[in-house]
Design brief:
The protein folds into two domains: 113 residues, Aspartate Aminotransferase, domain 1, CATH 3.90.1150.10; 238 residues, Type I PLP-dependent aspartate aminotransferase-like (Major domain) (Aspartate Aminotransferase, domain 2, 3-Layer(aba) Sandwich). 52% of the residues are buried. Strand 6, helix 8 and strand 7 form a beta-alpha-beta unit. Strands 5-11-10-9-8-6-7 form a seven-stranded mixed sheet, with helices on both faces. A three-stranded antiparallel sheet has the order 1-3-2. A three-stranded antiparallel sheet has the order 12-15-14, covered by helices on one side. It is built from 16 helices and 15 strands. It is of the alpha/beta class. The longest helix has 26 residues. In the C-terminal section; belongs to the class-I pyridoxal-phosphate-dependent aminotransferase family. It holds the Pfam family GntR.
Length: 484
């Protein structure tokens, strides 16, 4: 199946963040994709105009970039049959869903201010102290080969106690430790979603979840935030989903928090329909001062067997720690452990011992940083209101992101223009399985206030250039001149 312009734009990533004419930057990135096999021989490339629209550049930029690659012998262009990567087509591995924002968010920052991937940028002192406290435990390990698919007992116990403090009684046997929240979602997709199965998600939602469920070639159906309409969506047995997924606390990207009555209704509906409901609580720790958040959704279930809760330390402590977990019924934990053993046998034991030292004080650690997170959220909103008053920027009560609505245009094309002005943002369409949110952007507020000020200044400059059509031009020479 040929790549759509949006899919190729996703693979190009931050192609325009370097120095030099746009057509040369585009040609360089396409060349790399071809040489590394990301664009295999025979792959069809989008037409000039369509790709130009997706990248928010003039058609001449794409024509010139394609011409560079044609002269080099990397692509073939024929009237009537379009543009293809040179060489005979060959079968390759099944593609992932290619969540539009997922991989290139992790690229080095270079000169770009990163308002796309929200996470702490350095390990905090409490993590270093936790490792120091964990070393004596590691030194006493004997008769233990270290392969623990369900996780180290000390950390499983610490996670269970953490949930008990939050009003959700939990046994250590209900916990499986994972290498971060993303692995947790991938394991759940493999455990519950049949090839070609159905998954219910919110629109918009966390793009990593769309990627994880799409790996199973699932049909993803989007419902409004809070899974409004869940009961009717599972009413017909023939259309019963394999899994439903939501972010109940500090929703990614809107920051919304589901009230207790909605949590209770969803828990009852999931139990009645016998549909596993995954509650992603990775952001639940990031509440602003003075705000109250309800207990985990599983606390509202009568038996708790049908609700699966996902947690992680990536956003509250540091992504490099790679510690996440799943809370579920014991039969589900046993099933997940078998799947986990097939892939990596278990996680990093020293990191798990350090995490076990962190968990008892996690709430206190997050509370110490809550005022700073709120101040940065408020500062970003104030700067956007000052320099971009036409943008609609609702406040949040916690979390890490703002969900911005543009007054016109679309997020995909504006994100390309913003990148050329030195700031990376996430267009909303990549977070919305329904095909909506095209005029939305996701911005994060983790950065220091001076960085946020500069980021908004660059966004304002990009918006002035963007106008209504998103084309800021390119002085690329003509294809005829390139061929000489």
């Amino acid at each position: 199946m040929p790549l759509t312009p949006a899919e190729l734009a996703d693979r190009l990533g931050r192609w325009s963040s370097g120095r030099g004419p746009l057509h040369l930057l585009l040609a360089a990135r396409l060349r790399r994709l071809v040489d590394e096999g990301e664009l295999p021989p025979g792959a069809a490339l989008p037409p000039d105009r369509a790709l130009a629209a997706a990248l928010a550049v003039g058609r001449g930029t794409v024509v010139a970039a394609y011409e560079h690659l044609r002269v080099e012998g990397r692509i073939v262009r024929r009237q009537g049959s379009g543009t293809r990567v040179a060489g005979p087509a060959r079968p390759g591995p099944r593609e992932t869903t290619g969540a539009p924002v997922f991989l290139h968010l992790l690229e080095p920052d270079d000169d770009v201010i990163q308002l796309a991937c929200a996470a702490p940028v350095a390990p905090p002192p409490v993590l270093l102290a936790a490792y120091q406290r964990a070393l004596p435990h590691l030194a006493t390990v004997t008769d233990d080969i270290g392969y623990r698919p369900t996780g180290h007992p000390r950390l499983r116990r610490a996670v269970a106690e953490y949930y008990a403090r939050r009003g959700l009684p939990t046994e250590p046997e209900q916990i499986v430790i994972t290498n971060g929240g993303q692995q947790a979602l991938s394991l759940l997709a493999r455990a519950f979603v049949e090839p070609g199965g159905r998954v219910l998600v919110e629109a918009p939602t966390y793009p990593g979840a769309l990627e994880a469920f799409g790996e199973q070639a699932a049909h993803v159906r989007a419902l409004p935030i809070g899974l409004d309409g869940f009961e009717s969506a599972v009413a017909a047995p023939a259309r019963r989903p394999d899994l439903a997924y939501l972010v109940s606390t500090h929703h990614n990207p809107t920051g919304a928090v589901l009230p207790p009555l909605v949590r209770r209704r969803l828990a009852r509906a999931a139990a009645a329909a016998d549909v596993p409901l995954v509650d992603d609580e990775v952001l639940a720790h990031l509440t602003f001062p003075g705000q109250e958040t309800p207990p985990p959704l599983a606390a509202y279930a009568e038996t708790g067997t049908g609700i699966v809760t996902v947690g992680s330390l990536s956003k509250s402590v540091w992504g490099g720690l790679r510690i996440g977990w799943i809370r579920a019924a014991r039969p589900v934990v046993d099933r997940l452990a078998r799947l986990r053993a097939v892939h990596d046998l278990g996680g990093n034991v020293p990191a798990q011992l350090a995490a076990a030292e962190l968990l008892p004080d996690l709430e206190e650690h997050c509370a110490r940083l809550a005022a700073e997170r709120r101040d940065r959220h408020d500062h970003l909103r104030a700067e956007l209101a000052r320099l971009l008053p036409g943008w609609r920027v609702p406040p949040a009560t916690g979390g890490q992101t703002l969900w911005v609505r543009l007054p016109h245009g679309d997020g995909d094309s504006f994100a390309q223009v913003a990148l050329r002005h030195g700031v990376a943002v996430v267009p909303g369409a990549g977070l919305d399985a329904s095909g909506g949110s095209r005029r939305q952007l996701r911005l994060h507020s983790f950065a220091p206030t001076d960085v946020l000020t500069e980021a908004v200044r660059r966004l304002a400059a990009a918006w002035r250039v963007y106008g209504g059509d998103g084309d800021d031009g390119d002085d690329a020479p003509s294809p005829r001149a390139l061929a000489v």
